[in-house]
Specification:
Elements (H helix, E strand, L loop, with lengths): L1 H12 L9 E9 L5 E5 L4 E5 L9 E10 L2 E8 L4 E8 L8 E7 L8 E5 L10 E5 L4 E4 L5 E4 L12 E4 L1
Length: 168
């Protein structure tokens, strides 16, 4: 699996066009700033940020959901092995003005479930600097105040709460 991550990762992190299919299973999403991990509670369709403990609730799958375009891979973010997707609920539902609450809901391929995945900086060692942007609600996945969508017109590379490491 590590070899697959390396092969696909090189394609995603290149500056040229890519058409890689992303199928990364059982990864953790570790916030660059807080060091905490995205955690799913599938029984309540909720998500949050918790200390990383390599629990099943902190395992995620990134699955291609649309052809690559504009230098981004388009993925669904799913709790590992479950057909639920990280879904934005819209402006004004999150913890900050115009931010969006993020929950789990059955995957249906809607624009609020598809995340543009890109890197803000070249990866170094186990630091990946990946960002996820939802064009559906124009929010960037942010791990600063729980897990939510911060309203942006594109993710800001300098906002370390919006940078994610992917760990196996």
């Amino acid at each position: 699996m590590l070899a697959l991550l390396m092969v696909v990762g090189v394609t995603v992190w290149s500056s040229g066009p890519a058409n890689a299919a992303i199928y990364w299973y059982g990864i953790t999403l570790d916030d660059q700033m807080t060091g905490r991990c995205a955690t799913a509670d599938v029984s309540n369709y909720s998500v949050d940020m918790e200390d990383c403990h390599d629990r099943p609730s902190q395992k995620w799958d990134l699955v291609s959901s649309a052809p690559d375009a504009g230098g981004h891979a388009y993925v669904e973010i799913r709790p590992s092995g479950i057909n639920e997707c990280l879904t934005t609920l819209g402006a004004g539902t999150g913890p900050l003005a115009n931010s969006s609450r993020v929950v789990l809901s059955l995957c249906y391929g809607g624009p609020n479930q598809i995340w543009a995945m890109s890197t803000a900086y070249p990866p170094q060692y186990n630091q990946h600097y990946i960002q996820f942007f939802s064009f559906g609600d124009r929010v960037c996945l942010d791990g600063g105040i729980g897990l939510y969508g911060y309203r942006e017109e594109g993710c800001v590379p300098g906002n370390w709460y919006q940078l994610w490491n992917i760990m196996h």
